[in-house]
Design goal:
Elements lengths: L1 H40 L4 H47 L1 H14 L4 H25 L9 H25 L5 H24 L3 H30 L1
Helix pairs in contact: 1-2, 1-5, 1-6, 1-7, 2-3, 2-4, 2-5, 3-4, 6-7
The chain binds zinc ion (ZN).
Length: about 230
């Protein structure tokens, strides 16, 4: 293991968190802005628009938190079960496990002698860590934190959702629809660029993709709002 590996996983984690934060903010921004645009297109007053936007913020943040909690927990459970099985196998059939590890290093290009040497030394050092990393692909055995992941998702979603809500509260009612639509597209372009940079993807493609889907979402809710507003209201 040692210092080198630790630093490497650290970078991966930071990029992972940044991407998750950008995605959460992106979701909050698109869904709340679309909700507000839809309600505004139906000809509603500021009170109705703000209630709808606030309800959307809370509902979305809770749903993100629940989804993230469930997904991270079940991943942690699966990893825990894998490690428990591996621990039992190491205790009951150590020879087969050593042979298994040797085979893995041979598959990665080492010759039989060297592979066996590496497998022996890593087994002597920390057998479970070696099997977790090279057989199961688990690099950080204490990585999953469901509650923390849930809180981060909810917080980033709420941050993204707060922007159109705040704008709706401060803009003259008649201008809410175009102002929200325009500012959301700008916000999405910025987030799209950030997300592309965090994930190492091309900047322009990431920006265009995110902005396109945001525009489509707002156009859809505006159409629904205008249609129902005319017929029901
Ligand atoms: Zn194993």
């Amino acid at each position: 293991m040692g210092r080198f590996l630790h630093r490497e996983t650290h970078t991966v984690h930071r990029v992972g968190w940044l991407r998750a934060a950008v995605l959460g903010a992106n979701d909050g921004l698109v869904s709340t802005a679309s909700l507000i645009v839809g309600v505004a297109a139906a000809g509603s007053g500021r009170g109705e628009i703000l209630v709808a936007g606030l309800a959307g913020l809370v509902a979305g943040a809770m749903s993100m938190a629940a989804g993230e909690y469930v997904s991270v927990s079940s991943q942690a459970d699966a990893e825990k079960a894998d490690l428990a099985r591996e621990t039992a196998e190491l205790a009951t059939t150590p020879d087969a496990e050593l042979e298994e590890l040797t085979g893995i290093y041979m598959q990665r290009g080492l010759d039989r002698t060297l592979a066996e040497q590496v497998a022996r030394q890593l087994t002597a050092n920390d057998a479970l860590a070696a099997h977790a990393r090279d057989e199961l692909g688990i690099t950080d055995m204490a990585s999953a934190r469901p509650v923390q992941a849930a809180l981060v998702s909810a917080a980033t979603f709420a941050t993204g959702a707060a922007v159109p809500l705040l704008i709706a509260a401060l803009t003259p009612v008649a201008a809410i629809l175009p102002v929200i639509a325009f500012s959301t597209l700008i916000g999405l372009a910025v987030l799209g660029g950030l997300g592309a940079q965090a994930g190492g993807a091309p900047l322009l493609a990431g920006t265009v993709r995110v902005t396109f889907w945001g525009a489509l979402a707002m156009a859809a809710t505006a159409a629904v709002g205008a249609l129902f507003g005319a017929n029901v209201g």
